[in-house]
Amino acid sequence: MLEKKVKVLIVDDSILFRETISRFISEDANIEVVGTAGDPYEARDKILQLRPDVLTLDVEMPKMNGIQFLKKLIPQYPIPVVVVSSLPLNAFEALDAGAVDFVKKPLIKSPADLKDFSMELRTKIVIASTAKIIQSKPSAAASQKPLPSIKEIAAGKKLAQDIVIALGASTGGTDALQVVMQNLPKDSPPILVVQHMPAGFTKMYAERMNRVCQVEVKEAEDGDRLRPGLAIIAAGEYHLRLAKDSQGYYVTSKKGEKVSGHCPSVDVLFYSVAEVAKSKAIGAILTGMGGDGAKGLLEMRKAGAYTIGQNKETCVVYGMPMVAFNIGAVCEQAPLDKISDIIIQKLNSL
Questions:
Q1: For the chain, which ranges sit under pLDDT 70?
Q2: CATH for 142-349, among 3.40.190.10, 3.40.50.180, 3.40.50.300, 3.40.50.10800?
Q3: Residue 156 burial (CB < 10 Å; 0-12/13-18/19+)?
Q4: Angle between helices 88-97 and 173-182 (to 10 degrees)
Q5: Is 239 a residue of the active site?
Q6: pLDDT tens column, 17-55
């Protein structure tokens, strides 16, 4: 149990939803719902009055939508915000505007649906209470810089075919992955990514990343072949694994039970990379709560891969990288904006 309860303000235009969620969230001994608000103007007044630790925010609301509210709120009052949205586009716009995380608003058909949603929201509220609020988000324009091609920094075409880059992240990872991947050259070795995200959201995230990255980015499909210049993002509710046959690397994308609390799981990806690519891999574990990916990254390191952990100072939540570092899974810790440079340097030395 936490030393001090997390004080939460719930903002939603539906009084039924506010009351229902308040009741379910309050069952958590670590959380205290200090108030509710039906629109952003009421929320602003209650933030000043109640000083909550975390805000849960609906996107579609009267008078001012949640995105507009976030853009006004975060610069003045940098409070951790967990957005509740049924639409991927709204969720990503909210993250861009300064939200820490999001929860998919369910179609509640049974008490079990409400219970599952409430459990996820409770978990993310507690995680958000520990998060650093990073007000300057990465942008395509800001991150673009002249990049060498892999052919200029590493010897020969064979390298790009044999090497695999594996990345894993959770809370804060949508932005962190963008920082790393935008700065990798268009002919990079193939990149495999697990970002904790629900079904339906990963496809849109891949499309967003494809627009701002030099490499091509797509959501994983079972049997996808790896090639230089391609990044594959695990689909929500599907485990992503690296495999190899006589033609080379490919991926499997299969439904399965949660591993390390997640599906997709970073551990599942990293274990497969350790087994299949062995020393022909580079792995990086980025911001996120919990320990998913730490043991898998350790296996990668034991197999000869070069492993990187995001440092505490640049993490939104220093959880997954901390666990990985503490168990000896990390060859090198680094600030977020240096990780792509380290990857390129390692490619040059392989």
A1: 1-2, 108-109, 134-161
A2: 3.40.50.180
A3: exposed
A4: 80
A5: no
A6: 899 889 989 999 999 999 999 998 999 999 999 999 999
Catalytic residue among 85, 118, 129, 170: 170
Q: Which two tokens stand for residue 153?
A: 């920094």
Question: 12, 175, 196, 262: which one is catalytic?
Answer: 196
CATH number of 6-128: 3.40.50.2300
Residue 198 corresponds to which tokens in the numbers above? 């629900």
Active site residue 196: yes
Rounded to whole angstroms, how far apart are CA atoms 169 and 96? 17
pTM value is: 0.86
pLDDT of residue 132: 82
Instruction: Tell me which of 85, 175, 292, 340 is the catalytic residue.
Output: 292
* Residue limits of CATH 3.40.50.180 in the chain: 142-349
* Ranges of CATH 3.40.50.2300 domains, the chain: 6-128
At residue 155, the pLDDT reads 41
Amino acid at 68: Q
pLDDT for the residue 147 = 52
